[in-house]
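ARCHIVE CARD
Drawer: 12
Card no.: 0347
Subject: one protein chain, sequence and derived structure
Cross-reference: see card 0346
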Amino acid sequence: MSFDSREFRNALGRFPTGVCVITTTPEGGKPMGMTVNSFAALSLEPALVLWSIQTNSECYAVFEKAKGFTVNVLSEEQVDVSNAYAKKGDHDLKEGEFRLGKSGQPVLKGAITSFECTMSAQHDGGDHVIIVGEVIEMDNSPTGRPLVFHSGKYEQLR
């Protein structure tokens, strides 16, 4: 490898991504969420999506055991929500900021799209695990603009 990991990370950051909060309720625990920008569509038939989590993340054990989760695509007005669930040690969902979806998983209020998923598969991805979910419920707002992350900062679509 002729480049260091920081250079690689900076190069990856040149690709704009949407910002999501992945939510779940651990068995016997409180609803929680974490901010990610690794979300992607995988398949239409069946309806599959994916995202990844670093294996040393403090949330890893929760999602490794989760039976389901919700991908909440944030709107450009939800920078504060993104920042709140990106903080270490503070992943409990705040009362009034979510509802329970049809699947029983927490769904963030104000998200422009939410995909309620059952856990379909987990795959080794180096220092990450790739999590695949089968979408069983969806709430898609016809309006709203997505929160975008590019080169280490939030951006707006023009």
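Annotation on reverse: The first helix runs from residue 5 to 12. Residues 13 and 153 are 9 Å apart (CA to CA).
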